[in-house]
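Our consortium's second objective concerns turning raw sequence data into structural hypotheses that experimental partners can test. To show how far this objective has progressed, the report includes one record in full. It was chosen at random from the queue rather than selected for favorable results. The single chain below, 395 residues long, was entered without modification.
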Amino acid sequence: MATRNPPATSPNSLRQDLIEKAHRIGTTVVGPAADAVDREARFPHESFAALRQERMLGAFIPQEFGGQGCTISDLSAICTTLGQYCASTAMVYAMHQIQIGCLVRHGQSAPFHRAMLSQLAEKEELLASATTEVGVGGDVRSSVCAVETQGGRISLTKQAPVISYGAHADHILVTARRAPEAATSDQVIVLVQKADTRLEQTGTWDTMGMRGTCSLGYLLTATGSADQVLPQPYAEISAQTMLPFSHIVWTSLWLGIATDAVNRARAYIRGEARKKPGTTPPGALRLAEVMAILQTMRATVEDGTREYERLMHDPEALSGIGFAIRMNNLKIAGSQLAVEIVGRALQVCGITGYRNDSKYSLARHLRDAYGTGLMVANDRIYGHNASLLLVHKDE
């Protein structure tokens, strides 16, 4: 059984402990495996074994359910830390925490989901999500598949072009129409369990970057009990939790990619300076420039995280147009800054950073960074913001 009510830990000491664990795992396991994960486009098994060992998957689950009860800012710091070692590992961890956030914030009124939170904390199980679907043009706020209910049992079938690490997850949160007769936008989230779910692979994942997320396409079919449906509509869950959680933890791990790129550039310049004592290497000026941009990115992520943390318990504010626009802008800015920072760090390192066999190599960083604006397309988010701005009143 999960340990209930562990000794109270101060927020600062818990945060520091989690960051130290993330760095330790990153140094000993995640970082050393990163190149193989990228080269083979495989799931980072060893990284998640280590994260489970340190009880990191249930970090956001409240202590009453056996988790550590950390905050969204703590998750942001963990994702930034892991992102410095392996972007794929950090992305899988971030996507898992998005689903945990949905259960914590919207499932505690339902006995099934309360029991599931205890199970997740005890067993350190991994959650994936299936929100995209063939036939809706990338609009996660529309569903073709529907929940069919009969005698307290449910079933659903979803053609998903992407379910990241779906074959490696213990459970999947699936969006679907509430019922076959429901409108495409009348959606719910269903937690489907591995034993009751079949994944038939329909696509591959051979990409430039983020290769270890294993984001293949599947035909998903699942059955379960009616109480596996989260009680709140998906529209509310999306606005209040899924969207802000996503943009915060994603930009946080992208900050990690950018941070490590700059760290490699700084190490390269220091190495060059040691070769010619008393002189400033030519790339030092470029390093100073990219450090300033990194500081801007860090401030952007921290500002967005603080705003969400301040508004977390204000559903009206979280459902507001202004908040949605700001969260969308956080994602756009973070993805653009990540690419710029890694590119500038590459200019600092020159051909040494361009090589795959160099300790200063930034090839993986750059390939991963370009995925930030493509895996969830910035153009789609710009289009959504454009529609919102037509009706948004200045604040």
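The partners drew two points from this record. The first strand starts at residue 127 and ends at 130. The radius of gyration is 21 Å. Both points have been shared with the crystallography group to help prioritize constructs.
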